[in-house]
């Protein structure tokens, strides 16, 4: 996602919320003419093109135009510009929960759980577990998840084997014990290399703090509506674990060239998109031979048989209120047709390599042949029901920026204790939520 200029544009968008609400009932063409904006990614646009053409052959009275979301300078900004100009599509994909929170607060999108057949669609696509994290504090769901990328830890099993481990550590204390053995044999190696921990880039918090916090708290939201609802013990424990890794020289926060791939670190947080690059650049990295995959480490008091939550890089579909009710209904019929058939999700995965947001992805016979050819993707499929999407709070950028500036960075720099850093974050964030 291109980020240049997004903060100014988003601020202007929030100020213009009343304008968007005022034009919320505007129609964008005849009832049978629908527009769907796909992510500005050719494989995703190709999928929606194919789905629209197939649907129109069965429904010749319907015309669905598929276009890429304009990036000016970001896809979020392109959507905001269209809303402000009264030219929004009927629906679009590529929406994550934080941006969805802004659209919801501006009354720009439709609560999809109120559309007819909502429960039937959730059951048909087997999303009963996955959909829970997409509900807002008002009880409604505004985004229909399209794909979910659970974040998992890759561990260098070849190095672990040298240290006497047949499987990766599960708990914080087990990680630290592994670190002691690692330093004894390889003083220059680290458990984890994560330079962005000392950077205040808001979106980097998805791939460090939130992943560990979701695992420690069993996915409890940091913020619900206008209240901080975080699990304080899990949050402080996450900061303390980062501090211990850093204090014991097990955490590398300096720049390094592919530290996990080159064996400088033994663990790395990854998504399924990592493998294509590895196959080309690091062909010796083989799943089950030189690396394995596991959920994020958890506090020692988490039972071994409890499923571990993790952060989800996830996006979905929204419908816009600028479309007429007739257009909304016809678009909804199209979306139900697309997402009720697992064969369509199979086409999606083949074209995009993005795992569809289905709880049964690991067990449905439709996908078995696909995963048999790419077994490294199976752990990601297994963890979709445990994947927690981003914050729904509309001021997510400021909230996540504060996690770095108020808590993580000063804790790692020994300027604050974990408890102090967490309290500083809460004091900074409370005025940001309505």
From TrEMBL:
It holds the Pfam family SBP_bac_8. Residues 1-21 form the signal peptide. Keywords: Signal, Sugar transport, Transport. The keyword Lipid metabolism does not apply. It comes from the Bacteria. SUPFAM superfamilies: Periplasmic binding protein-like II (SSF53850). The keyword Signal applies. This is Multiple sugar transport system substrate-binding protein.
